Design the sequence.
């Protein structure tokens, strides 16, 4: 089954505009935020906007749809107020996902801020169980692997596997980020490193739990621990690395969602995130 090439796009102006933006850059799958990523306040999506989203998705044949939860959430937060708001944000995202018919929500689980994974695992597991109970439905909740900076949870696949195993729900899944894996020391740029990484994912998480891929080149070197995305082919993973990722049997049938900075326009100006050029680069490698 072929890999689908998708992109994270804005939904400014109404959630349905995300489909229009995805079509404009030839994306086959799409990811959006349920609300402003740096704000706690949820966006109230009007029923007519949700209906239009579903209509346009079907009209244009967009495959998978994913929501990315807001950046503020931290299920390992020490402050009870922040933890409550974090849980509420994921519940909201899952409800929006069900409303628009999305496949699921991608979540940065949070940071233990140096206390260690063992000190927060029970709290995180309980938070995840509460989230799933408060937002019943079919949408998956995919925990994203991290680069490891700032005590973030999930730099090692063992941590994600431990959380998924403890929650024990068929709705829990893995979002595999290529840049984050590379920054955490997984050499996905080379065949032997990619095979070893896939073997670890299979052992610790299970390939059946691998739901979606974030396709980002890495600006920083292998094992840097720094989450810095680069355009496809312009970073340390490179074109050959992505050719290997797209061809690997472990990723067959998954959507590769671009979260790259984009190519600056000719004559100067600011790049605008995933763009037609990056979509076409991945498609050519596929």
Sequence:
């Amino acid at each position: 089954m072929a890999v689908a090439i998708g992109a994270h796009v804005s939904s400014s102006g109404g959630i349905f505009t995300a489909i229009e933006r995805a079509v404009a850059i030839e994306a086959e799958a799409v990811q959006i935020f349920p609300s402003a990523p740096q704000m706690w306040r949820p966006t109230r999506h009007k029923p007519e906007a949700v209906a239009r989203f579903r209509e346009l998705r079907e009209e244009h044949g967009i495959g998978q749809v994913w929501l990315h939860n807001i950046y503020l959430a931290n299920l390992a937060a020490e402050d009870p107020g922040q933890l409550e708001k974090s849980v509420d944000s994921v519940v909201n995202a899952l409800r929006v996902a069900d409303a628009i018919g999305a496949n699921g929500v991608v979540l940065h689980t949070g940071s233990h801020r140096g206390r260690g994974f063992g000190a927060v695992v029970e709290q995180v597991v309980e938070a995840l169980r509460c989230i799933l109970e408060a937002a019943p439905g079919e949408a998956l909740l995919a925990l994203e692997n991290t680069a490891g900076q700032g005590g973030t949870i999930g730099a090692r696949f063992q941590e994600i596997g431990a959380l998924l195993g403890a929650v024990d729900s068929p709705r829990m899944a893995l979002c595999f980020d290529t840049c984050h894996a590379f920054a955490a020391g997984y050499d996905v740029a080379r065949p032997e490193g990619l095979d070893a990484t896939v073997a670890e994912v299979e052992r610790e998480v299970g390939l059946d739990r691998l739901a979606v891929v974030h396709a980002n080149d890495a600006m920083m070197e292998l094992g840097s621990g720094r989450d810095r995305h680069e355009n496809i082919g312009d970073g340390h993973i490179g074109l050959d690395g992505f050719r290997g990722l797209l061809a690997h049997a472990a990723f067959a049938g998954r959507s590769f969602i671009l979260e790259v900075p984009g190519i600056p326009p000719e004559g100067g100006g600011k790049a605008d995130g995933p763009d037609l050029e990056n979509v076409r680069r991945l498609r050519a490698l596929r």
The chain has a mean pLDDT of 97. DSSP finds nine helices and ten strands in the chain. The radius of gyration is 18 Å. The beta strands are 4-8, 29-32, 65-68, 104-107, 140-144, 172-177, 210-215, 217-218, 229-230, 255-258.
